[in-house]
Amino acid sequence: MNRTIASGIFTQPVNVLRFAGSAGVALLLWVCAGPIVLCVVATWMELALTVPIHFIQLRRGDPNSWTRMSTPRDGGDKNYVRFPQLSLLCYGISIDVL
Amino acid sequence: MKCVFGIAFIIWGNLPGNALQLGVFMQQAINPTCHESDGCLNRGYVVAWGVGVLTLCAFLNVATREYVIELNNVFAVLKLGFVAVITLVGIGYGAVHGDGCRRITWDPIDQRDASNLGDIALALFFAMYPYTGYEQPFYVLSEVSDAQTKFAPATYSAMLVVMILFPLANLSYLCMVPYTGNAGLPENMALAVIERLSGISPTTPSGDRNPAAVRAVSALLAIFIFGNLMAQTYTASRVKAEIAKEGILPFSITLSRRYETLFSQVGRLFTSAPQPPLSDVEGSREHAPFPATVLHWTFEIILILAFGLTMEPPDAYGGLTYMYTYVIVGVFGFLTAAGLLYEKLGLEPNGDRRWSELSRGRPWLDPVPAVVATVCLGFLLFAAFAEPSPGKGAGWPWWVRPTVGLGSVFLGVLWWGGMRFFRWYGRWELVIDRIPIVRIREGVPVQVGEVVKHTPVAVVKQ
Predict the structure, then answer these.
(1) For the stretch B364-378, what's the b/e string if a residue is b when 16 or more beta carbons lie within 10 angstroms of its beta carbon?
(2) How far is A65 from chain B (nearest CA, A)?
(3) Domain that holds residue A78
């Protein structure tokens, strides 16, 4: 929220009005911009909670405890933008998780 | 793709436009009767404020981590409260005085202000810019306490709040300061609202205006922007450290390193308690990416000098915020959404499992969000090349900004080609070993760190 509310909501209304040419159209654009960004957030969220996927040993020394799990990590869209080679799944090896 | 994202993010993944705007507000706080259009805002002073605040943010980023996060939370509450109050006051004022709200129309008041496709595309980009910021917690996701169950509801809630608040804030502005055509537009809506509340009309001569209100609000908005810059420095420097791990930059390993924060180092001098080793990524020692912060700061300074010294502050702010929205939100948002849609449609073979089985956090109405994001952002990226109406554009010609934006993306392709050639010519390759460090938090694995090793190896010609 701190990053979202800054100069934009105070200074961009003038730019939006200037290019929209009417108050009604400007308001409509403000209403439309939110859902578009919300849809982008939804795609980020799905990817953030899914990739990368690691093989993880849940119990040290137990060879039967290896399982494939989503493992959220830092980096944002650096991890998501791999188009067009969309091998989004990083099958790394992770140990010592407990 | 690593180069395409990495290079473009290093160039544009910062907020020098906001730093310039902070400079404008500080100058207005010092000289409240001065307006941007008067030309009395000294360009050099505005840039100096911007450089100063960006340097302070970079210093705080390497000095402390805990206090930056706490300050971040304080700023979030203050800003939300301010926008909510100004919205309620504006709508209340409009309801009581009853003139401004009724003057909101679909048709342009002056036909010279009528819009075309190019205008609408630009206006939509500018309207999307204030909604951005959602991406920041994704960049430091390992620091979120429970990504699976708490992060998603919190992020969606914050987005819903601004989706309601921002249009209402604009309605409030228009109720207080009716739109009478582009010729009568104020430079800053919040300041215009405060002036109207203090009894000043647009026809009041500059000399008769009450400087106290303008001074106070200018200072407050400058402080808000400072909070914003601090948050951006925190996350973007960490993303740049992540980019360095990919081995696409000179001195990659150095740039990816984190060091103990200055406050933590000083604090250690005054405690006798045993400290965990530096290798303990979740220990009590604070870490910050010092070299990546310097990289982040360097590009911010280059941009603020390049734009701030060659353009008037409003044009420089518009240009820089447009570039951020076009490249970081538009291009990479489109590639992310289109890539996810590609997976959802089953066009990418994933071995024995489909995306729907692997996916976590599937959104409501799936796959509608991915389709809407792909279509809307794809349309906007092309529509940005449509020419706006004469007289509305400021600064650069209309085609320069999207061309520079796409050019910076293409620069990543060139960078990749140059890197490949350099290594081929030198007969060497870079072997990158990455071992993720995973912890289970409340039953959910999170990658909290990574051991990265870059080894140049000679390529022997067969």
Answers:
(1) eeebebbbbbbbbbe
(2) 14
(3) 51-98
Count of domains observed in chain B = 1
Higher pLDDT, A38 or B272: A38
Contacts of A23 in chain B (CB under 8 A): 103-105, 174, 178-179
Question: Taking CB atoms and an 8 Å limit, are A43 and B340 in contact across chains?
Answer: yes
| Domain region containing B329 | 2-458
Domain identity same for A44 and A70: no
In tens, the pLDDT along B313-324 reads 888 888 898 898
From first CA to last CA, the distance across chain A in angstroms is: 34
Whether A46 and A59 map to the same domain: the answer is no
Q: Are residues A7 and A35 in the same domain?
A: yes
Q: Environment class of residue B451 by beta-carbon count within 10 Å: exposed (0-12), middle (13-18) or buried (19+)?
A: exposed
CB contact under 8 A, A5 and B80: yes
Say what the pLDDT of residue B175 is.
87
Spell out which residues of chain B touch residue A48, defining contact as CB-CB under 8 Å: 138, 141, 147, 361
Apex CA B434: angle with CA B433 and CA B440, to 5°?
A: 155
B185-234: per-residue pLDDT in tens? 887 787 788 777 777 665 555 555 667 877 888 888 898 899 889 888 98
Strands A66-70 and A53-57, sheet pairing: antiparallel
Neighbours of B430 (CB within 10 A): 14
Q: Chain B residue closest to A12 (CA)?
A: B126
Question: Does the structure show a pLDDT above 90 at B137?
Answer: no
| CATH number of the structural domain spanning residue B302 | 1.20.1740
Q: Please give the pLDDT value at position A87.
A: 40
pLDDT of residue B78: 86
In chain A, which residue's Cα lies nearest the Cα of B18? A7
Number of structural domains chain A divides into: 2
Asked if residue A43 and residue A59 are part of one domain, the reply reads: no
Q: Which of A6, A76, A87 is the closest to B228 by Cβ?
A: A6
